[in-house]
Amino acid sequence: MTAETIQRRGGTSGRRAARAAAPIVQRRYITRRIPLVELLDEAGLELVHSTSMTILEEIGVEFRDPIAIAAWKAAGADVRGQRVHLPEAQLMQILATAPAQYTQHARNPERNVVVGGKHTVFAPTYGSPFVRDFENKRRYGTLEDLRNFIKLAYMTPNLHHSGGVICEPVDVPVPKRHLDILYSHMRWSDKPFMGIVTAEERAEDCIALVRILFGDGFIDAGNTVMTSVVNCNSPLVWDQTMLSAMRVYARSNQAVLVTPFIMAGAMAPAATAGSVAQLNAEVLAGIAYAQLVRPGSPMVYGNFVTTVSMQSGAPMMGTPEPAMMIYFTAQLARKYRLPLRSGGMLTGSKIADAQAAYESIQTMLPTLMAGTNFVLHSAGWLEAGLAAGYGKFMLDADQIAMLQIFAEGPDLSEEGIALEAIREVGPGGHYLGCAHTRRNFMTAFYTSPIADNNSYEQWEAEGGKDANQRATERAQRLLRQYEPPPIDVGADEGLRDYIARRKSILPDGVT
Fold first, then answer.
1. Contact at 8 Å (CB) between 131 and 146?
2. Mind listing the pLDDT tens digit for each residue in 325-349?
3. Relative to the CA of 479, which of 24, 55, 245, 359 has its CA 20 to 30 Å away?
4. 3-state SS of 252-267?
5. pLDDT digits (tens, 9 = 90+) for 9-40
6. Alpha carbon of residue 81 to chain centroid
7. Is the predicted pLDDT of residue 1 greater than 80, yes or no?
8. Are strands 30-31 and 138-140 parallel, antiparallel or unpaired?
9. Is the peptide bond before 235 cis (omega within 30 degrees of 0)?
């Protein structure tokens, strides 16, 4: 090895060490300063909307919940058994009470997020039963894994939200699992978080816990401290479990991502526009019901869109049709003055490989350019959601850091236009040592903490590691550096006491 190579390696190692030791500066949620991209013209948007209105009035949506049916009857809807038929005028009148944006409060007020308008909030992946661990092996998730991901989200500047069930802690009994999940978010992060929706009583536990953390007065004043997610049973069914959880949150003015889970070709037509028309009917019916429960409760127009392989039946992500669906739904959400949840770093790949990279960014770019307000599955998603990967989490976090810079637009200030530097250097010179470069060289351009841009020889000398290996090692380094945010001792004791009492009466069996 030559002296020159050793010197280069020392410089690179020094720069990496400096980046690793640098303090983590959290970024606020995005306020976009770039234009929206809209694919539908006015006539196309009206066609999708009117088709949705026909679906709602003529076909209807099933609400498989007696409390919801009673509410619709009281509201004067056309109810036939479990099927609710809604004319456009009545639906639009109900939807008008839903807010166009809301603030979700974190226990650290500096981490509050605004959902809606020109804002974008990134949250981690959600709901994976498996993890791809530090050894790049697939196994069931544990409570330790969940806490690791929460800590990584806390230490990731461009993840503005802690999320929810980043991975399922399958070593905790199902009836008690929600308590450990929520406490983990409350204790190991001070960012906003999500509640649990798998049963009505679990949602009620979440409300009880946030009352302890934030205080009864803060919750009773109508402040939103959770944004949770419920899924429609497409096609055109809302079930009792999801409706009951949404009802619990709406009563306490807690936000919900009201989200049909669309796999076009299986749960919706094998047609892009037709799938969106069905999705639109489903989500509007769900949000309207929440407004019957509590007018003005914050609800987000949610969607999760994929297509299905007509050969295998497997979901396909990162393809053109879901991208178009994201753009369509964004325009519809704005038409109804509702915040939008969509997209994420979605892939069907089993590992963090080229397929994962291409599919993820092909989903996330439309998500950003369409103007999505809340992005679930922003980091860690693998295997169509079945697995959360440590390496993929860090690779995705690197990408969303770049996307945040892009969304905030160019610097056109005097420093950004850099005429001073051009005058100083003049024709035939270079900018490496000029005053402007010396002032800005650390911050002028984004530098990835994971990507390798060195020579082949240097890469080989450092172990010839691929991106996933480097990203996994970064996750391990961050976890070693992690320090928990402070928490009020009395609130923490109250949370632990409530959880202990609830666990003492809940069964250990799988229910």
1. no
2. 999 999 999 999 999 999 999 999 9
3. 359
4. CCCEEEEEEEEEECCC
5. 445 555 555 555 566 789 999 999 999 999 99
6. 36
7. no
8. unpaired
9. yes
CB 267 within 8 A of CB 300: no
CATH 3.20.20.480-classified regions of the chain:
95-407
Amino acid at 271: A
Count of C-beta atoms within a 10 Å radius of residue 451: 12
Task: Give the model confidence (pLDDT) of 165-178 as tens digits.
Answer: 999 999 999 999 99
Beta-strand relationship, 227-232 and 340-341: unpaired
CB 95 within 8 A of CB 336: yes
In 3D space, the residue among 298, 259, 307 whose CA is nearest the CA of residue 100 turns out to be 298
Mean pLDDT over 200-225 rounds to 98
Tell me the three state secondary structure of residue 139.
strand
DSSP secondary structure string for all residues of 267-314: TB-SSHHHHHHHHHHHHHHHHHHHHHHSTT--EEEE-EEEEE-TTT--
Query: For 95-407, which CATH superfamily applies?
Result: Trimethylamine methyltransferase-like (3.20.20.480)
Residue found by looking up tokens 């539908």 in the block: 40
Token digits of residue 158: 């461009």
Closest C-alpha among 112, 109, 110, 170 to residue 144: 170
Q: For residue 65, what are its two tokens?
A: 């919940």
CA angle, residues 366, 367, 369, in degrees to nearest 5: 60
Give every CB contact of residue 167 below 8 A, 6+ residues apart in sequence.
125, 128, 129, 130, 131, 141, 145, 146, 149, 388
Question: Within 10 Å of residue 396's Cβ, how many Cβ atoms?
Answer: 32
Is the pTM higher than 0.85? The answer reads: yes
Tell me the sheet residues that pair with 122.
Answer: 375
Helix axes 143-155, 174-188, angle to 10 degrees: 30
Q: Distance of CA 480 to CAs 150, 155, 187, Å?
A: 14, 11, 17
User: DSSP state, 384?
Assistant: G
Nearest CA among 350, 449, 362 for reference residue 392 = 350
Which residues face 167 on adjacent strands? 128
Tokens standing for residue 10: 């020392």
Distance CA 374, CA 104 (A): 11
Residue 112: Cβ within 10 Å count: 18
One-letter amino acid for residue 205 of the chain: D
* The token pair that represents 363 in the structure block: 């989903």
d(CA 344, CA 366): 10
